[in-house]
Design brief:
single chain, 14 strands, 12 helices, binds iron/sulfur cluster, two-stranded parallel sheet, TIM Barrel, DNA polymerase, domain 1
């Protein structure tokens, strides 16, 4: 439980933690269910408004707890309706969160770390460096804050899907990410179905196994290359978890007989990973992995030397995969006029990672998580 001198942030708690808190306070565990519902289903940010809780307990909660989500530092709306928030954290650093409205759904893309230490060479976030993991309150707080803002009576825009594809490698923050995922799935909170919540990883195999055991959500893998030689360069963690091992972990991710598939994200970089021979190699790599491939047109950002594949090359690459019997889609670019498109999120924070020690840090961070 929380340090008694600091108020418990109720947003830091999934249902089990809230129940345990109320039991510790001499209350019935169902009080935790009520608070969870007030917070996440009704978007309540004031314990004194939680009307089915006794006045005396509300007063105690007001004295000993807080409801503290990241604050909006800045918000931009793209011409296509995509919203991007810059959320300020208590430490002064800022993270980015994006809402992408579509005809039949609204997808919220949230961050799991302040920055990212993985240094995937095509990614703007990776270029900014790493500061720290987000807490549960900071992860679910992005959902809490965005849902409250999107609920305007004139033009309500529901969040139907959540993807952990913003800043950071979610599986390097596994404990907090799993608690936040439980809140997203909980019927007393956001009640999203397991297919509508997606964790995107570069492929940390031990953490993928833990995720599969602890919470049932969809998996996306940032693949971006059809062979180890190229993936070692584009996604450096590949040196620790090469493709053969990663493909086996993907085959194992869903239970036998499941109809779910792993989504493989593949950013299209001109003359780097977009040739037809690479498409054929990709088809061979994925031929016995239940999968779909999401081809992502590269979104340039200042300072990058990569360019996006041409439209023709994108279409040929997709056709080649489909001819091999794979499902391949081309992601529609959204929010690029406000730098909210995939791979463009940078936030605003102090990098704590000296660039020259980055590679060593990546390997030791992974080892720490494995040892925990
Ligand atoms: S692609 Fe993901 S893991 Fe790689 S640097 Fe960017 S945020 Fe980090």
């Amino acid at each position: 439980m929380a340090d008694k001198s600091t108020p418990l942030n109720l947003l830091d708690c999934d249902k089990e933690k809230l129940r345990a808190y109320f039991v510790e306070q001499g209350e019935k565990p169902f009080r935790g269910d009520q608070v969870l519902q007030w917070l996440h289903q009704y978007g309540c940010n004031d314990v004194m408004s939680m009307s089915n809780i006794s006045q005396s307990l509300r007063s105690r909660l007001a004295d000993t707890t807080t409801i503290h989500a990241p604050e909006t530092a800045f918000k931009q709306v793209s011409k296509d309706g995509t919203c991007k928030w810059l959320f300020r954290l208590d430490c002064g650093n800022c993270i980015e969160t994006v809402f992408i409205p579509e005809e039949n759904r609204g997808t919220l893309c949230i961050s799991s770390q302040v920055g990212c230490g993985f240094n995937c060479t095509f990614c703007a976030t990776g270029k900014q460096g790493f500061n720290r993991n987000l807490t549960v309150a900071e992860i679910i707080g992005q959902v809490f804050a965005a849902v409250r803002e999107l609920k305007s009576p004139e033009n309500p825009r529901p969040v139907t899907n959540i993807v952990l594809m913003g800043m950071g490698e979610p599986l390097l923050n596994t404990d907090n990410v799993i608690s936040a995922l439980r809140i997203m799935l909980d019927d007393l909170a956001y009640g999203l179905s397991k297919r509508r919540v997606t964790v995107s990883t570069t492929g940390l195999i031990p953490q993928m196994r833990r995720l599969r055991q602890e919470v049932d959500v969809a998996l996306a893998v940032s693949l971006h290359a059809p062979n180890d030689a190229l993936r070692d360069v584009l996604v450096p963690i590949n040196r620790k978890y090469p493709l053969a091992e990663l493909m086996q972990a993907c085959r194992d991710f869903y239970p036998p007989g499941s109809r779910q598939v792993v989504t493989f994200e593949y950013v299209m970089l001109q003359d780097v990973n977009d040739s037809l021979s690479q498409a054929k190699q990709l088809a061979r790599l994925l031929r016995d992995v239940p999968s779909k491939i999401n081809l992502i047109p590269f979104n340039p950002y200042p300072g990058t030397t990569y360019q996006c594949s041409t439209r023709e090359r994108l279409a040929d690459f997709q056709q080649c995969l489909m001819a091999a019997g794979l499902v391949a889609t081309i992601r529609k670019t959204r929010g690029d006029d406000i730098a909210a498109a995939c791979g463009q999120l940078v936030g605003d924070f102090a990098d704590k990672t000296p660039r020259r020690r980055l590679a060593a840090r990546i390997v030791s961070a992974v080892s720490e998580v494995q040892a925990a």
